[in-house]
Specification:
This protein is mainly alpha-helical and 437 residues long. It is built from 23 helices and no strands. The two termini are 38 Å apart.
Length: 437
């Protein structure tokens, strides 16, 4: 990816330690990338997993079952948000992130060692579901922890830009998963792929556990965290959150509709849509997915910086309206020939997602007080991803089944994005202001 090397400004506020900020950003990017590599693999191999763990006379039914387990992993994210939120607000941001990495890396590697339905019958999908639930717990706190660590350590005037690199690292993980999945499908024939080849990318994730050890050794807690302990944070952050900030939680879910539905349609659904519905080869579908993620990555830091200059609200509304008006026509081209048409459609969708996603870290950190920030962000973001993100591939597949219209998921995303745009009209822009205490 051409934008993989971040260039950080050296002329910044005197209270910001740039060398340490770089260390924080690179560490959080690496840990976050590995977590998302682990989580994304399931989506890339959904078609193969469906046939091996959910055998059926219908490929469509197998895919539906596979996406059902994909959604099940999201059910645990709010619980993970509460658990890691407590750790992050009471014990430390660093500790919460470190343990979330461990809980993601080990279960993901276990998927690569699971016996299939043919070997152990219904215990195979049961064990797979349990592993996905553990992954969901990890995702409930890891990504939000990275956002908080980076933004709380950032220059006040460039929180949007610095925070966008956390989103960028997510894409590195997804891209790494896509690239390895694509390489695996190109190098191996179908027999090798189904017998053992699909397991290799999952087994590689065990190396991600070393990142948690690095974080424990070299990173320290943010000044925001130290201050909140000095003022004594709530004994049970989740109770304080539910008492005083429940409306903000609902509001975050509203503005994240575009993100939760759009991201998982673009990253997890379209790849399988192209292979199952359109009949495209696994290799070509993954190639298109990889190119689109690169395009999204190029947009991320640009959008993050634009949010510092022009405000979070303007950039987010532009992204939401882009989805509302252009998703349906772009979906029309996904099933078109030649290959350049679905490629251009996927790239355009990815650019819109990059525009919308980049300001999210700074926006969320600026919304909540530091004493309960980890809990608030983790719970709000997890609920959004659970209710709408994890179900997005399943809902898209279901909509196609009941309507007979292969472009019906586009209407779902367009309506959700319009709702986000309306919610964003009330967003108070806190760029440049001190973070809430």
């Amino acid at each position: 990816m051409t934008t993989a090397t971040a260039t950080f400004p050296t002329d910044t506020q005197s209270d910001v330690n740039i060398p340490y900020l770089k260390k924080v950003i690179y560490s959080c990017m690496l840990g976050n990338a590995l977590e998302w590599y682990d989580f994304a693999l399931y989506g890339y191999f959904a078609t193969i997993i469906g046939k091996l763990f959910f055998p059926s006379t219908s490929d469509f039914a197998s895919l539906m079952a596979t996406f059902g387990v994909f959604a099940a992993g999201f059910l645990m994210r709010p619980l993970g948000g509460i658990i890691f939120g407590y750790i992050g607000d009471k014990i430390g941001r660093r500790n919460a992130m470190m343990w979330s990495i461990y809980i993601m890396a080990i279960p993901t590697a276990a998927i690569g060692a699971l016996p299939t339905f043919e070997s152990i019958g219904f215990f195979a999908p049961l064990l797979l579901t349990i592993i996905r639930l553990l992954q969901g717990v990890s995702m409930g706190g890891g990504f939000t922890g990275a956002m908080i660590m980076v933004v709380e350590n950032s220059d006040t005037q460039r929180r949007g830009y610095f925070g966008s690199w956390v989103v960028f690292s997510l894409l590195i993980g997804v891209l790494l998963g896509s690239a390895i999945a694509m390489l695996t499908t190109h190098v191996l024939n179908d027999e090798q792929l189904y017998s053992w080849g699909w397991r290799v990318p999952f087994l590689l994730s065990i190396f991600g556990g070393y990142i948690g050890t690095y974080m424990k050794k070299y990173l320290h807690e943010t000044e925001e965290f130290k201050e909140e302990h000095k003022d004594s944070s709530p004994s049970i952050p989740i109770m304080s959150l539910l008492k005083d900030n429940i409306r903000t939680i609902v509001y975050v879910i509203g503005i994240e509709l575009t993100l939760s539905i759009g991201f998982y349609l673009i990253v997890a659904f379209i790849n399988n849509y192209l292979t199952t519905m359109v009949g495209m080869s696994h290799g070509n579908a993954l190639l298109l997915n990889t190119i689109s993620i690169i395009a999204m990555g190029i947009m991320i830091p640009i959008s993050g910086r634009l949010s510092d200059i022009h405000g979070r609200r303007k950039v987010l509304i532009a992204g939401a309206l882009g989805f509302a008006f252009f998703t349906y026509p772009l979906f029309q081209f996904l099933g078109a020939a030649p290959l350049v048409y679905p490629l251009l459609a996927q790239v355009c969708l990815a650019l819109l997602m990059g525009l919308f996603f980049a300001p999210i870290p700074a926006t969320l950190v600026e919304l909540f007080p530091s004493q309960i920030r980890y809990t608030a962000m983790s719970v709000a973001h997890s609920l959004s991803m659970t209710i709408f993100g994890g179900t997005a591939p399943f809902m898209a597949t279901w909509l196609i089944a009941i309507t007979g219209d292969e472009t019906s998921p586009a209407i779902y995303l367009a309506v959700a994005s319009l709702i986000s745009a309306i919610c964003l009209l009330k967003l108070r822009d806190n760029r440049g202001n001190c973070l809430k205490q």
